Amino acid sequence: MQESAINIAVNLITQGDPDLYEIIGLSLRVSLSSVALSLIFGLTLGAALATGQFRGRAVLNIIINALMSMPPVVVGLLVYLALSRSGPMGWLGLLYTPTAMIIAQTFLITPLITALSRQVIEDLYLEYKEQFASLRLTQSQRIKALLWDARYSLSTVALAGLGRALSEVGAVIIVGGNIEHLTRVMTTAIALETSKGDLALALALGMILLGLALLINILLSSLNLSARRQAYA
Amino acid sequence: MNTLTTKLVFWLLILTASASIAADKQVLVQSTTSTANSGLYKYLLPQFEAQTNIKVNVVAVGTGQAIRNARNCDADVLLVHAKQAEEAFVEDGFGIKRHDLMYNDFVMIGPENDPARISNTTNIQSALQAMAKAQTLFASRGDNSGTHKKELQLWHLAKLDMSATDANWYRSTGSGMGATINTAIGLGAYTLTDRATWISFKNKQDFKILFEGDSALFNQYGVILVNSEKCPNVSKQNAERFISWLLSNDTQTAIAEFEIDGQQLFYPNAN
Q1: Class of B106-217 per CATH?
Q2: Most exposed of A26, A48, B17, B80 (fewest Cβ within 10 Å)?
């Protein structure tokens, strides 16, 4: 079966199956959008937690760390209840749309980005603290400097977020509904083919998803590498 | 930095907004899985969409969940197979009217060597009693789906109460039909499935239909228009058009003509 799965994967890609490219495109759109949104929220919150001095900071850190283990199904359920036509935000008509999937994944990934970036920034902050004080930098200047100097570590944080987004099925299948040509993504297609007993096709789709992740990682690390070379040239 | 952030936010808004703009003529169907997994929708819906320009969006989940979602108004049309639950749905005011659409039957599948010898039995009661007596593994959906409800009725018919059992051989998967068949095959367990799902299932391995044909295994599919008085968001015109199209003579003939490996999957019976 494994061998035939590889054949199927190769055939799907080389024959340019339009349905396949559609679901790959949607997977990328949903995951990249939710990672980008999570980076906006997560980096802001992470930097604030790393550099700020306020009461309850330690408790907040623990809560956000714990939220990293939030099951996707629970996130999906909460977003479903909010976006359902009978829910408080049903009037928006967003349930069973890609937007709903982006919202759910943003909730799922933001704690991860926040917790990891908080740690990265905090470590750097301890190193820079005295220098910052001697330069009399404002809080926002400090955060900008920290984010910039930590950018390579933070790009790994973003990749961790993207990995979670690309691979999760529990949240997007509930709020997206796995509707063909509308909300079907790689993971929900894999779940569907498994439930049809077409294990070879499911495995082939899994290989393609993994290949996609590999491609993104190669792209990003080569970008990082060339940026580093420039920086130290 | 600030302009970059602004640009990023702007770009994201475009991206997410473009996702929410969809065709205005569409129907949202909450459905049982067998009609989707067997490929019936893939065969039927393009015909409807070409004729009417109305896009049909199908959310295929178990009957139990489909009904729950429709009660939350997250459907224009409900297409499931649990007559009692469907009638309760209409009685509670969530549905306008229930129509018979088509039928097929349930079958009991299991490993080829048939350890409980259910293929020798003559009715479903004795088949189930044979399984209980031999204590061979049985995989139950356990998810309140149409098939699960049917299964519980059948145990009741055989005078065996499985709703609160802790028998070691009775395994509740709490999953969809396909996942339950995969589990049953992994365990070498018997399970009950609708015929359409089984015929179209691709991972059969050494599993076979071991019991079929009892009239108690009848499987009726119904279709219901969700009540727009309860759920103002229902796109009533499109949904009505879709339902009357399903019940029309031409579509009923098309349903009868839908085959996999030369076997008919659904028998139309709209009146």
Answers
A1: alpha beta
A2: B17
